[in-house]
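User: Can you predict the 3D structure for this chain?
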Amino acid sequence: MRSLAGELPNGLIAGFRAGLELKLSPRAADRPLYAIGMGASAIAADLARGVVEAETEASLVVVRGADLPRGVGPRSCVLVLSYSGETTEAVEAYDLAGRRGAQRTVITSGGALAEKAAEDDVPVLRIPGGQPPRSAVGHLFGGFVGLLDSWFPESNERRLEIACEEVRAEIPRLASSRGPAAAIADGVADRLPFVLAERAFAPLARRWASQLEENAKRLAVFDELTEALHNSLIGWDTVRRPEAARYAIVLVEWVAEQPLVRAAARHLRGVARTRGVRTVPAPLPFEDRLAALAHGLALGDFVSLELARRRGVDPYPTPAITRGRAALAAPRPAG
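Assistant: Here is the predicted structure, written as structure tokens:
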């Protein structure tokens, strides 16, 4: 898993270039766009949404599940993401989008989804198979951004190359037992981590939580700033000191975040300090969004792997997910 985590920059570049060859028409940006996926596939779409919404005039809706919004129809573009091509919800959503007459594009490594797309003459962005879906997030995210590249004022190709060069140079430090990932792991230790980030980077916080769950085999929670000050702040403000040692707040802080977000993080840190809850900084030092996201993905991966090492667990297998997928794929009674 450490080796796969180190391949993130290469996956981002390869995925982007593959998406660039298949890119959607700029005219498609005027139509409703829906991305359908689960797990790492959906997170890749979420990560892309943060960039698309901030830098283009297009809107992107990410759907987790087989049911599509009522608005999906002949004027809609639907991107179906499933690394394996066998994800039950993604396959069912693909069929439903077809019945509604939507324009479909598929991102997958193969499976039933690729077979259906071939039969329906639907464009497919193929990504390499043979690894855990969560380690393919570079190919998925990069491919997604490549597909939508013509929607941006300028191509992202050189920008992403520079970002990946920077992250590639950082990986030895991130993987080090004395690096920033290890320092964050020190802060989290055996506590239940709550990972928070601003709205555009909230998908990154979600990715961190899911990596902690899948790699380190432990529960994790994600939240959003400044939203947390309107609800979960109450919980933090009433934590009793005897239980405060059970929690850690991990603040994913983008160097270019808005002053309002900084103020929210500062207030939350003060409340946590008063209650005896540990806060752990996780800085994203790059001003460019794509570079910050790429760095954040790599940093989160190595944090989860360091915590797995300390807990003595193998990060690779996820048998509970395999059983869960089998349960979803089993025949279901009508109604």
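The two ends are 41 Å apart (CA to CA). DSSP finds 14 helices and nine strands in the chain.
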